[in-house]
Structures are given as structure tokens and as C-alpha cells.
Amino acid sequence: VTTSRYRYQLEILKYDYTPVGQLPITPDWQPAIEWARLGAIRAGSPIGVVAASGTVDPIWNSEAGQPYISGFKVSVDGEPARASEFEITYWRSLARAAAATLIEKKVLLDGEQFRYRVAAFPRTDAPSSRGKLDSGVTEVAPDLQLSEGNLADMVAAGSPVGAINPSDPPVFIPSQLIREAVKMKAEAQATETGSVLIGRLCIDRRGPAAELFAVVTAHVPARYTSNELTRMTFTADTWADVHNAISLRGAGEVMLAWFHTHPTRHFCTCEDCDRSRCSLNTDFFSLDDQLLHRSVFPRAWTSALVISDVMDESGTWTDSCSLFGWRDGAIVERGFYEFDPDRADRVATTDGGKGGTSIVKRSGNPVLGSTVGGGRRGAGA
Ligand SMILES: [Zn+2]
Ligand SMILES: [Zn+2]
Known about the structure:
Bound molecules: zinc ion
Number of helices: 8
Radius of gyration: 23 Å
Structural class: alpha+beta
Number of strands: 18
Order of helices and strands: EEHEEEHEEEHEEHEEHEHEEEEHEH
Helix content: 10-25%
Low-confidence stretches: 128-142, 346-358, 361-381
């Protein structure tokens, strides 16, 4: 049950501040709560007391005044000093969707600039729980499986892919796994395919602030039914495979991310396709992708690897690798580190060396560490 002391309203205005529409919003607080949890852990909050629920309070807009807000703050451990603040851009995509509806109704012109603002009103049926929220998460903080790790060593051993943003919890993905993902995409041809990435969630407490980072070690291919070929889904069989793999490997691994493909070269219907015009020639994370990520991977340190078809300079379709993840409670494209576990793993994590990169076999019982060890080392470099 989600309760809040305030009800929220989104207002859409023309660029000259003429109001053109408003709608009540029921905020999805969980991504903000998860981001606040990460902030509290980084700020030194004892992990055991960081609950999977939080308290949300509006930050009043100092210029426009109440009821308008400039954002909100979330406290997850009852320490106001460790509260995380969010801006109203938290509702950016909702505002865009509302504006699109107003364009359909011809209240706004297509392409016209608009503004949005959010107002908060005390609830008359105010619950007594003082804005305490239940985020709907049954798994609570003490279940966090953490390994001690050395972030600086991992960064030194890895190569950055994409733009590394210091707000993002670092993610390390073995080069071998990316090669396997590209191969899975090629083999599946026009069908979307994917896997669940498992590994160690590490904490490094050496610096002034603790940092959580994700070290991916293996992936478990997704199994789906034959009539769901065009859209990526995770079935109960896949989750069973993942839990079996984690328990068989016995290395304290957790689910960190998922991978799927966008084989868009097979869907292109351009008569004379070229890179500047083809709408499919892009790295993207669809609305379906976002909904799946939100429901299955809500944790602030989880991410989604996508291998997409994009066109290179010469007009040939090629594979592009991108990672999406949470930042300030929103899903954004983000950077990560590619690394070779043989070089990085043992020095960087105290329990390193256990369960290196492997693709866990799809049929029958998941195979423990099927490609770990000397064979891969020989094949690698
Ligand atoms: Zn095209
Ligand atoms: Zn997708």
C-alpha cells in the first residue's frame, strides 16, 4: 500500500506560461527510493538499516511558492542529512506524454515548446503514517549479498565503453561475455534473444564515500516459448535457470543486469536504406524495455546491455553495444567498463577467481563454469 501526505498534479504550460492542461499524477516512487538507498549506502549508512521503503517530502519552489515544488527529497534510513534530492525532471517523460496528448487535441502545436510544473497539495484524508511509503519491495536490505572489492584496481584493469558518469555505480562486463552476446544475436537472426547477467555486487569502503559496483561474471540465456519470438520476455524457466546457476556456482552472485538484442536490420523496410534516414538506425531502449527493466530490475545498480543493429559509415549494418541503467531514478544510456577477468578478477575482489565468465548452458542442468579456466585463456588473446 502506497501512502503519501500529498497528492501531486502536473501542469502543462505554453512557453509564455499560459496554462493549457493539468492532470493528477500518482508518482512511482520506487526508482527514487532505490536511488536514495544507493545514496545512503554511499554516504556510509549501515546497510542493514537501509530499508526498502522511504519517506518522501516535497521541496517547495522558492520562486513560485507553495503549492509548486522544485523537486522532492527521499529519506530511506530516517537520517534527514542523508536524504536524496530529486528535481521535477523526474516526471519529464510523463510531461512529454501529456504534451503529446495536448498536441493531438490541437491545444499545443506540433513542435511548440512547452513548460511543465508540479504542484503538491496536502491530502485531506491524510494518512497517519507521515508519508511513509511502502515501495512494494518484499526483499529488504539485509538480503544484499555484498563482496568487498577494490574499485581502483578494477578501473585500472578495465577499458571504458561510452561516457562514464561519476553518479552511476560502475559496471564491469567481461569482454568474453560481450563477444558471446554478439554471437547469440547473429545466431538468432531476426529473433530477439537475451540473457540474465549475474555476478558480484561489490562494495569498496576505502574512500571518503563507499561505492557499490557490479562485476558481471556470467550470463544465463533466456528461454522462451516459440510464439514469443519478436519480443524479449523472461519466462519462469529462465528464472529457474538463473537461481540454479547462482546456487550451483556458490560464489555469492546476484542478478545484476539483463541483455537483449535489437536485430533491426531484419525489420528495415526502407526502399533504399541509408544511414541518415533509417529510423531503425539507432541505439534505443524502447518503452517495453523500460517497463521490463522497471518491473524486474528496479535496483539502482542494475543495468541492461543491448546489442543493436546500427549502420556504419559505409552503409553496412553492424553491431553496436550499449548499456542502460538508473540515474536519479530515471533510465538513461550510460557507460561501463569492459574487462578481462583473468587479469582483473583475482586482484580486485577478495573472493576473486571463483566462477569466471561463462555462458551457462541452456538445456538440462546449468553447467557450472562451463567455459572457465585454461581453455578460454588459450582461446582469448
Ligand atoms: Zn532502413
Ligand atoms: Zn529492446
